[in-house]
Design a protein that fits this description.
The complex is a heterodimer. Chain A is an alpha/beta fold. Chain A folds into 3 domains: 6-63; 72-126; 132-236, Double Stranded RNA Binding Domain (2-Layer Sandwich). Chain A has helices spanning 6-17, 23-33, 37-63, 72-87, 90-126, 146-158, 170-178, 221-236, and strands at residues 132-138, 164-167, 188-194, 199-206, 209-216. In chain A, strands 2-1-3-4-5 form a 5-stranded mixed beta sheet. By secondary structure, chain B is mostly helical. Helices cover 73% and strands 0% of the residues of chain B. Chain B is globular and about 55 Å long. Chain B starts with 5 loop residues before the first helix and ends with a helix. Classes of the chains: A alpha/beta, B mainly alpha. At the A-B interface, helix 1, helix 3, helix 4 and helix 5 of A face helix 1, helix 2, helix 3, helix 4 and helix 7 of B.
């Protein structure tokens, strides 16, 4: 192609077809086409492609038009045409009406289901975070005894995420009981198992209020702890 | 504006048709205006209305709502071309019909008239509607804009490069690819190719 690659030939041909070529460019193309029927045929094909594109592109662009607005005066004439052509089909109309009715029913049904789901979900979504639990055991007789060790395990089993603190003196315990976590938005509970008194004392902090309750070991520690746990759950999920 | 419900249209639902007319009007009007603005501007609205009437007639043949806009464009195009031919025939004397080639070789304003008649008129309505839909899907908006800038608006490679933020070399490559896509589409429509070749002779 006289040292010219495919793209260069294309660019030159485009300029000539679009009448943007200089005399020199036009002459260059002429000399390329002279005596080269293959290239001449390609040039003619390009002219045809351009012509098709020039015809199609404006129509395609018009197909995407969004203005002007439909003139009101044409409405009646066109609706008359619709009635004459398609209007006399009660069976189809009934089916369409029915389809429309079903569509409405479907939407209403979906709306109802959505409302129910939202109603059920809201409490779980707005539920406050779980209470912070702190557990301690007061054993004034010392923590080395086997029974006490077992009881620590029972306490630990009930509140697995908490570490059981072991106190041997009341002073230490009182200090611990007064030291509430600084995270005031979250409810908290302190559970103290007083071995000597045979009771489980529970203090629940809900907002700024402290609620206390004691559970005596009537049967065994596990039963009392379960009661304590139920009380905490009740207080912190209100 | 969302497309109308085809089932409701088929059974003549008034509301659905109102919606369809509002949705299709801009297309019918734009195509009619494209063909008639130069010679018969007063006929544009008439052709757009006739287009929508013909859409009503063809409703039972339409398979999906996406076909409606290309079909409206195709109908409007061919109705507009018919009007141009009628006008030319009247000018030439009642009862005479002219080929597109004759229009082209006539001289005076008939050359321009022939330009407006277009080789697309060689296609059947549905064939043209299909072709328009395929061009929309196979040539993306950027390619169409680039081709339009060069061939319809007469911008140079440099001007197109500046407008679209492209290197001059890239403009040429994009134009080449766009035309290759058009060539493939044209090859599927031998009647159109024949008409175009006749135009270019």
């Amino acid at each position: 192609m006289n040292g010219m690659n495919d793209q260069q030939f294309h660019d030159l041909a485009m300029k000539v077809i679009a009448r943007q070529a200089t005399e020199a460019e036009r002459a260059e193309l002429d000399s390329l086409l002279t005596g080269n029927p293959e290239l001449k045929a390609e040039f003619e094909r390009l002219r045809a492609d351009v012509r098709i594109g020039m015809e199609l592109l404006p129509v395609v662009a018009a197909t995407e038009a969004t203005a002007p607005e439909f003139p009101a005066y044409a409405g009646e004439r066109l609706q008359t045409k619709v009635r004459q052509t398609l209007g006399a089909n009660p069976q189809l109309a009934k089916e369409a009406e029915s389809a429309r009715g079903w569509a409405w029913r479907l939407w209403l049904g979906l709306a109802t289901v959505t409302a129910v789901i939202v109603t059920l979900l809201i409490p779980s979504l707005v539920r406050p975070p779980t209470a912070l639990i702190q557990v301690a055991m007061l054993d004034t007789t010392g923590a080395t005894r086997g029974d006490a060790t077992n009881e620590v395990a029972v306490l630990q089993e009930m509140w697995q995420k908490s570490t059981v603190q072991n106190f041997t003196g009341n002073a230490e315990l009182e200090a611990w009981e007064k030291a509430w976590p600084s995270e005031t938005q979250r409810s908290a509970a302190k559970i103290v198992y007083d071995r000597a008194a045979g009771e489980v004392r529970v203090s629940v902090r809900r907002q700024k209020e402290i609620i206390q309750k004691s559970f005596t070991l009537e049967r065994d520690l596990t039963a009392a702890l379960k009661q304590a746990k139920a009380f905490i759950d009740e207080q912190t999920t209100r | 504006m969302s497309p109308p419900d085809l089932r409701l249209l088929r059974c003549g639902d008034t509301e659905a048709w109102d919606e369809a007319f509002r949705w299709l009007w801009p297309v019918a009007f734009a195509v009619a205006e494209l063909k008639l603005a130069h010679f018969l501007p007063g006929d544009v609205e008439d052709v757009a209305i006739e287009t929508l009437e013909e859409i009503v007639d063809k409703m039972r043949e339409v398979k999906c709502v996406e076909e409606l806009k290309p079909l409206a464009a195709s109908i409007a195009h061919n109705l507009a071309v018919s009007r141009l031919r009628e006008r030319f025939a009247k000018k030439r004397g009642a009862g005479q019909t002219e080929s597109l080639e004759a229009l082209q070789s006539d001289g005076s304003d008939s050359d321009e008239l022939a330009e407006d008649v277009s080789p697309l008129a060689a296609l059947e309505q549905t064939e043209l509607a299909d072709l328009l839909a395929v061009v929309q899907s196979e040539l993306n908006a950027d390619q169409r804009a680039l081709l339009g800038d060069f061939f319809l608006r007469g911008l140079s490679y440099e001007e197109i490069g500046r407008k679209h933020g492209l290197a001059i070399g890239t403009v040429g490559v994009y134009l080449k690819r766009g035309l290759e896509a058009i060539r493939k589409l044209g090859a599927r429509h031998p009647k159109l190719m024949k008409e175009v070749e006749a135009f270019l002779r």
